[in-house]
Amino acid sequence: MKKTLVSALTTALVVGAASTTFAAANPFSDVPADHWAYDAVSQLAADGVIEGYGDTTFRGNQNITRYEMAQMIAKAMAKTDVSAADKALIDKLAAEFSDELNNLGVRVSNLERNADMVKWNGKAEYTYKSLRDKDASEKENSDHLLFRLEPSAEVNSNWHVNARLDASTEMNKDKANGDNDNVKLKRIWAQGNYGNFQTKLGKFAQIDDDSIFDTTFSGAEVKFGNKVTFTAGAGRLDFSDYYRDYMDDGDKTVLQKELNKEPKDLKFAPTWIRNNGNSQDDAANYQYAGLGYANGKFVGGVDYHHLNADQFFYADRNGSKADRFNYKQDDNANIWLVKAAYQFDKTNGLNGFYANNTSADDFDKAWSVEYDYKGAEAENKGTWGMWAAYRNLGYNTALFSTYDAILQGQKGWEVGANYAPFKNVVATLRYGNGKETWTNDKIENLFGRVELFF
Q1: From the centroid of its chain, how far is CA 8?
Q2: Are the C-beta atoms of residues 389 and 371 closer than 8 Å to each other?
């Protein structure tokens, strides 16, 4: 198919109702202002129907494929403010390119488009963990099954409502009465997207879900920008939910086992939050802000997190191996974090972060460096990847660690690999070897997971 500027004008009819005048700036260096199709090309670019090439050219005399034409039609189909005549032209083009549109995941019939206002994604996964303290001769194994649904409902062209529902069970603690089973609505939030502005309201994950804050909170978030972004949020963070999930997953370090031996009325939470030593304060006031940058191969950011609750109890290195209940009391956590990732090519990447809790006197730092080679892609059978990393996850900083082989309060090496044996199936294996930072005990952790995506 010839990509003449006549084709551009034909497509312009599809978006003709989007604007009353062709006043958009022309982004293409090879379409001068005195060209007969300048207005049409400029408006199509402004409406997002055409993008051109990375060198700022349009190349209007170059052949294009049916797939490329289908991409333009798909973008035109997404418009709602079109006239009846333009709608008829859209339907005609959609029928002509129906096979290509289906390959793009764009459904053609109006009925299907309405049904697609609610989309369902999810997965089923099996996880095995073996956590070992070699010096204390302690070992804990767990088998965890999870079924997750993640619906997304379209409210209008700008707003969606999203949710996450988890049903899980501990196979190693299987009971006839189902006491080890649970079903939880983990997240639910409304999200509005307006160009370079985004807002979230509800219960959702925050900006550092790729480092040390892998949890959800209830509140609001705003985000501005494109390549350079500013994000800020505030709300309440529920530690009791995190504590139960953490223990269900079997992620108990030596320290946590010891703390569980305290009187039952002093319930232990990973951040040691209590109120006057008697009742537990399950939630903290939470605020955060961050600057992010993404451009091609490089992604980076600087973030700040502040949490306030009645009496944080920080781990103190003065506590000996025999007496592990030595704490420093403070109502606040103030955590600064710097993170970056660089993708050298399609197969090699490097990422890492460094964090510091300025309110803690000890175990106040957390950091990680990881090298990645390739990576399993759920949609592509036979793809695989492997990685090696060193992590040091201080107790008082890595409050909600995302990592599975080196845990909160541990430091050491991790190696791992993943593989997609079938489409939408990924198997992952991780091995961690290092030390528990408080007791200096040698640890060895094994993590395995199989995920089936749908």
Answers
A1: 38
A2: yes
Strand 298-315 versus strand 283-295 pairing type: antiparallel
For position 242, what pLDDT does the model report? 44
Burial of 347 (0-12, 13-18, 19+ CB in 10 A): exposed
Say if residues 8 and 44 touch (Cβ distance below 8 Å). Answer: yes
Q: Provide φ and ψ at 99, rounded to 5°.
A: -65, -45
Instruction: Quickly count: other Cβ atoms within 10 Å of residue 329's Cβ.
Output: 11
Q: Token digits for 293?
A: 């940058």
Neighbours of 363 (CB within 10 A): 22
Q: Which residue has the higher pLDDT, 213 or 267?
A: 213
Nearest CA-CA partner of 147 in 176, 184, 96:
184
**Which whole number is the average pLDDT over 409-417?**
96
Q: How many CB atoms lie within 10 A of CB 97?
A: 22
Which segments within 113-196 are labelled E, that is strand? 118-133, 138-154, 159-170, 181-194
- The greatest distance separating any two alpha carbons of the chain, rounded to the nearest whole angstrom, comes to 84
Please spell the DSSP secondary structure of 25-51, one letter per residue.
PP--TTS-TTSTTHHHHHHHHHTTS--
Instruction: State which H helix or E strand residue 247 sits in.
Output: helix 239-248
H-helix segments, 50-187: 66-77, 84-96, 98-103, 110-115
pTM: 0.67
- Residue 297 tokens read as 């191969």
Domains and CATH numbers, the chain: 5-115 (no CATH), 118-453 (2.40.160.10)
Higher pLDDT, 256 or 438: 438
C-alpha to C-alpha distances, 197 to 192, 194, 231, nearest whole angstrom: 8, 5, 10
Q: In this predicted model, which residue has the larger pLDDT, 9 or 11? A: 11
3-state secondary structure of 75: helix
What does the alpha-carbon distance between residue 218 and residue 285 come to, in Å, rounded to a whole number?
Answer: 10
With beta carbons less than 8 A apart as the criterion, state whether 403 and 414 touch: yes
| Spatial distance between the Cα atoms of 330 and 311, rounded to a whole number of angstroms | 5
